[in-house]
Design a protein that fits this description.
14 helices; transport; membrane; OppC_N; 70% helix; globular; MetI-like; MetI-like fold
Amino acid sequence: MATQGAVARFFDSDIWYSFTRSPITVASAIVAFICIGGAVLAPWIAPHNPFDLASLQLMDAFKPPAWTDEGDPVYLLGTDDQGRDVLSAIMYGARVSLLVGFCAVLLSVSVGITVGLAAGYIGGTVDAVLMRIADIKLTFPTILVALLIDGVVRAALPREVHDQIALYVVIFAIGISNWPSFARTVRGSTLVERNKEYVQAARVIGLSRSRIMITHVLPNVLGPVLVIATLNLGFAVLAEATLSFLGVGVPPTQPSLGTLIRIGNDFLFSGEWWITIFPGIALIVLVLSVNLLGDWLRDALNPKLR
């Protein structure tokens, strides 16, 4: 009954009304759902397993899309230089890109919330030191930090070990690069919340500082964090694609959309355009739909625009 009541309240809320009144937002949600669903269910709905070496045939390499004169209906979007189905490769590659994006954003949110809460609630020297660290971090581009971290790991570990943990290195590099935006947002909201009556009452009854921050202040500062996290998901996917395109992202055994674009780029000017164009379109559609949802969520949660 409680669940049904919560669902009923959600469908009666201003957020749901704002969502249904925006055709662009509805279309973006549908596209994002299709992209994410296709990636998550790729092992079950993909036409082929592009990374099963036993099923690959070099004779099927460089087949154009199915609607062209030389196309094969079995391969809707054609094949690459190894005979892998491009459509299936995109679905599997999106799994890796979304995994990196979600995990990197989760890491950024965790670090940013921790730093922002501590800086905003404790204040004083702690606030000054943490915010200066955030300011210094903001002077370094995400890609530069990721390249630096990847270079250090490559120099410190053997190549075989690096290939095994490359996915985690990329997640850490992107996630640790984007926490300042979360920290500054949470700090600003915490500075407002810490002087309100409910926080003062919690202090009076003797609750510890950490409990007040976690159980009282944190739930009231999560709204802006959710918006930034949605927007940062698209940025994280793009950052991973950029790193993989440069050859320092995920290993070739776990190709993402960026890796597929890099592989196809080698054959772009020889006429096999579909190998890189379709993964590029998939990346654009995925990031654009997520960003449009983030823009809508930012406006929907802004009380000044209601």
